[in-house]
Design a protein that fits this description.
It is built from nine helices and ten strands. It is an alpha+beta fold. The chain is elongated and about 70 Å long. The two termini are 34 Å apart.
């Protein structure tokens, strides 16, 4: 026996199918409420329910007076992996990296997180994460030079992965602590690398990474493009 499907679900599934197949692309306008009402022989409430669900799920966005449009694909993190690259690949993205700089610096905040003297010299790695040829995030990672030296960090140009670079010297991240907030992007270099306007709000994440012995091995700050990024958390009761 064929299971009856709610009309709003049918509308949602067919729009999602068109987006996934490429028939509808980011920025395309979807059919209006009146068109969908006639097409599916449903009420305005049913169409609006479908639109609301699709907007909440990040597939569409509405512009008052103009209509409803296909949104850019977001990276929806399920917090299932501490590797950003692995999550992107699992979600079907084509990933790449631009290494902005690898240098020795002083940073009192990072030094405190790493358990070092405020004036200690740190290895700082700055890089842009690319997903489907668009800047997704700007990472700034700090290390104790005794954990990862500038010379060792150079292999990042070949591995294209921080975790692969760490694995080469026998360091394996085990777990992380992350703090999420919203922060405007004002640093000129980050503005340019992320291709956004100065003052653009971003998801700002402070991350402390630990090894299997609960020793801190990295402190990182990351700006995520708010238009391409969201987080979902599953909580079991």
């Amino acid at each position: 026996m064929r299971t009856k499907i709610n009309k709003y679900r049918q509308i949602e599934e067919e729009i999602i199918a068109d987006i996934k197949s490429g028939k509808l692309k980011p920025g395309d306008k979807v059919d209006s409420e009146s068109v969908l009402k006639k097409k599916y022989n449903v009420s305005t409430i049913t169409v609006r329910k479908a639109f609301t669900d699709l907007i909440n799920d990040g597939y569409l966005y509405g512009v008052q007076g103009l209509g409803t449009f296909v949104a850019k694909k977001q990276m929806i993190r399920g917090l299932t992996s501490i590797s950003f690259s692995e999550e992107l690949i699992q979600l079907g993205y084509e990933v790449d990296m631009i290494i902005d700089s690898i240098e020795e610096v002083e940073n009192s905040v990072a030094s405190e997180k790493l358990g070092l003297d405020p004036h200690a010299t740190l290895v700082c790695i700055k890089r842009v994460r690319i997903a489907n040829k668009e800047p997704m995030a700007y990472h700034i990672s700090y290390f104790d030079p005794e954990v990862l030296s500038c010379e060792q960090a150079q292999s990042l140009y070949e591995t294209r992965s921080l975790y692969k670079t760490l694995a080469q010297i026998g360091i394996y991240p085990e777990w992380v602590n992350e703090n999420y907030s919203v922060k405007d992007i004002n640093e000129p270099n980050v503005v340019n690398q992320m291709n956004v306007k100065k003052g653009t709000p971003s998801f700002f994440i402070k991350r402390v990474t630990f090894d299997e012995k609960d020793k801190v091995i990295e402190y990182a700050e990351t700006y995520f493009n708010r238009d391409n990024y969201s987080v979902t958390v599953n909580i079991k009761v």
